């Protein structure tokens, strides 16, 4: 029995390609469209919308600052604009890089930072701390809080990519092979 178990687990431990490939697939299947749709809500009108985010973008990212200026974005600073534009672009670029497997470790690290900032904004900017079910608690019997439960899984999948890379079916692997002359 022990030798059968050892034989089976030995094969699994040699499947280094499986974990990063599945992590990218799970990210694409569960989070890609979440972030892209969120990014779309932040774009302004037309092609200029890439550089002129919607009022809703500012309200999502800086809720208290927007409330303080009665939702008049012209009263905000260049810092606010830069954060909103870079955050909006990040919601498109970083997930696309992860799905393509291009600069995967860096993109996954960027997504982890994005999720941390997103969570802090939800807790402090949007009042999530006032609703304990939003923040949640680990080691309780409820697996559905938005911050501690759901986003912990998001970050775990991304940490797999930071540590393991993109796997064999990726642009990272193709570029590495090309640079090595294979």
Itemize the secondary structure elements and their pairings.
Elements: H1 2-13, H2 18-30, H3 32-42, H4 55-61, H5 63-68, H6 78-100, H7 104-125, H8 132-135, H9 146-164, H10 171-180
Helix pairs in contact: 2-9, 3-6, 6-7, 7-9
Main location: membrane
Organism: Roseobacter fucihabitans
Subcellular location: Membrane
Please explain how this structure is put together.
There is one protein chain. Helices cover 70% and strands 0% of the residues. The chain is mainly alpha-helical and 182 residues long. The chain has one domain. Helix 2 crosses helix 9. The longest helix has 23 residues. The protein is flat. InterPro entries: DoxX. It is a multi-pass membrane protein. It comes from Roseobacter fucihabitans. It holds the Pfam family DoxX.
Q: What share of residues are in beta strands?
A: under 5%
Order of helices and strands: HHHHHHHHHH
**Intertermini distance:** 42 Å
Main sheet record: none
Unreliable spans: none
Number of domains: 1
Note the overall shape. Answer: flat
Count of alpha and pi helical runs: 10
Mean pLDDT across all amino acids: 93
The gist of it:
The chain has 182 residues and is mainly alpha-helical.
Core attributes:
182 residues, mainly alpha, flat, transmembrane, DoxX, membrane, transmembrane helix
């Amino acid at each position: 029995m022990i030798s059968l178990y050892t034989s089976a687990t030995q094969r699994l431990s040699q499947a280094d390609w499986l974990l990063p490939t599945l992590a990218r697939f799970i990210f694409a299947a569960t989070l890609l469209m979440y972030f892209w749709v969120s990014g779309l809500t932040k774009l302004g009108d037309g092609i200029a919308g890439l550089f002129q985010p919607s009022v809703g973008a500012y309200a999502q990212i800086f809720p208290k600052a927007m409330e303080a200026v009665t939702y008049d974005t012209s009263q905000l600073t260049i810092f606010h604009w830069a954060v909103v534009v870079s955050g909006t672009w990040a919601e498109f670029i970083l997930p696309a890089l992860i799905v393509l497997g291009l600069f995967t470790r860096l993109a996954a690290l960027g997504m982890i930072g994005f999720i941390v900032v997103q969570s802090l904004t939800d807790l402090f900017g949007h009042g999530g701390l006032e609703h304990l079910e939003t923040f949640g608690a680990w080691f309780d019997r409820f697996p559905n809080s938005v911050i501690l439960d759901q986003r912990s899984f998001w970050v775990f999948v991304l940490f797999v990519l930071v540590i393991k890379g993109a796997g064999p079916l990726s642009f990272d692997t193709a570029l590495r092979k090309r640079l090595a002359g294979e």
